[in-house]
């Protein structure tokens, strides 16, 4: 996760007119050997630097946060005392459920409070939205069957999420924007400073449409998204690999919605994703679904009732499966 604590704005005519744009798969933290662009977009300033008349230098201190917008949970971090710090939310937790809900009174709920009421309000509670962002309806047939809310198609074939409580349908990025807004609001309170800029991570396999939609979500949330970076690159930064030279590393990422493995080449402060592979239908959500299917199958055999057709029962089963899965992280067995 990347973040920065200050920026400099320089006025007066100095600048660089022919910067080489880096490859979209590469993240630069220094100068690539033989590159045709400078290390930084500003000239080096020293105590002996002189400026012509009319030149002004304005240094603006502002927080730039790093955001991990996840399928099931999200997190936000900032640099504090020279070290990246995960920011706790209003509930005192380091992660925030990527869940948004609307009540019959048109109240909007985000995070843990939205997740808690999902059992009684399944059709208006939106989760795992990252699976739909930047995608067409024709691409998400399987995903749409795994959620308790209605996934519909608009006139252009895009995905819309139906919200009967307020008689409206949302694009996936509009829902993700609500999660981003909560993260940024919590960060602003924690840092005691308004946050308007962020770096957001995405899976390495995200295509241009998904990356653009993620950036749009930031814009809807009122954020300036300075950069979209690959999740394996962010993980490599977190472990300090940018300080090493000529390393080839493997990043294993098993998340709430996806599993992917990426091979990166690191050298001279440059990260390049050489290859990435994985399964977009293998993650914590999918583990939960297997347990839900098993429970529902058992119940149908014994009682003759298909719980999967009842949205409220489906949501309750999903929560039960998730709880059991989490308990098995530290126990050898659990009861459902």
Automatic annotation (TrEMBL):
One of its GO terms (molecular function) is ATP binding. CDD domains: ASKHA_NBD_HSP70_DnaK-like (cd10234). Pfam families: HSP70. Residues 307-334 form a coiled coil. Keywords: ATP-binding, Coiled coil, Nucleotide-binding, Stress response. It comes from the Eukaryota. PROSITE patterns: HSP70_1, HSP70_2. The keyword Nucleotide-binding applies. The keyword Coiled coil applies. Signal peptide: none annotated. This is Stromal 70 kDa heat shock-related protein chloroplastic-like. The lineage of its organism: Eukaryota, Viridiplantae, Streptophyta, Embryophyta, Tracheophyta.
């Amino acid at each position: 996760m990347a973040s920065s604590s200050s920026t400099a704005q320089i006025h007066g005519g100095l600048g660089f007119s022919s910067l080489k744009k880096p490859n979209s798969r590469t993240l630069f933290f220094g100068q690539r050997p033989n590159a045709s662009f400078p290390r930084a977009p500003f000239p080096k300033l020293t105590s002996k630097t002189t400026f012509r008349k009319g030149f002004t230098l304005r240094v603006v201190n502002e927080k730039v946060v790093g955001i991990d917008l996840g399928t099931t949970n999200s997190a936000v971090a900032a640099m504090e005392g020279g070290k990246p710090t995960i920011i706790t939310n209003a509930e005192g937790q380091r992660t925030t459920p990527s869940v948004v809900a609307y009540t019959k009174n048109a109240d909007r709920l985000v995070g843990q409070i939205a997740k808690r009421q999902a059992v009684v309000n399944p059709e208006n509670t939106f989760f795992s939205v990252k699976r739909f962002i930047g995608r067409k309806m024709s691409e998400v047939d399987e995903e749409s069957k795994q959620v308790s809310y209605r996934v519909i198609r608009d006139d252009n074939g895009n995905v819309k999420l139906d919200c009967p409580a307020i008689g409206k349908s949302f694009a996936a990025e509009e829902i993700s924007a609500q999660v981003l807004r909560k993260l940024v609001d919590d960060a602003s309170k924690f840092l005691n400073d308004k946050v308007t800029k962020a770096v957001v991570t995405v899976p390495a396999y995200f295509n241009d449409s998904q990356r653009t939609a993620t950036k749009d979500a930031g814009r809807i949330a009122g954020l300036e998204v300075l950069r979209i970076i690959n999740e394996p690159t962010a993980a490599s930064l977190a472990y300090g690999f940018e300080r090493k030279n000529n390393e080839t590393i493997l990043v294993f990422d098993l998340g709430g919605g996806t599993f992917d493995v990426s091979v990166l080449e690191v050298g001279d402060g440059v990260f390049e994703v050489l290859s990435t592979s994985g399964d977009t239908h293998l993650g914590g959500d999918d583990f939960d679904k297997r347990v839900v299917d098993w429970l529902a199958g058992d119940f149908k055999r014994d009682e003759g009732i298909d719980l999967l057709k009842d949205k409220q029962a489906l949501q309750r089963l999903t929560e039960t499966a998730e709880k059991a899965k989490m308990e098995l992280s530290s126990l050898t067995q659990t009861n459902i």
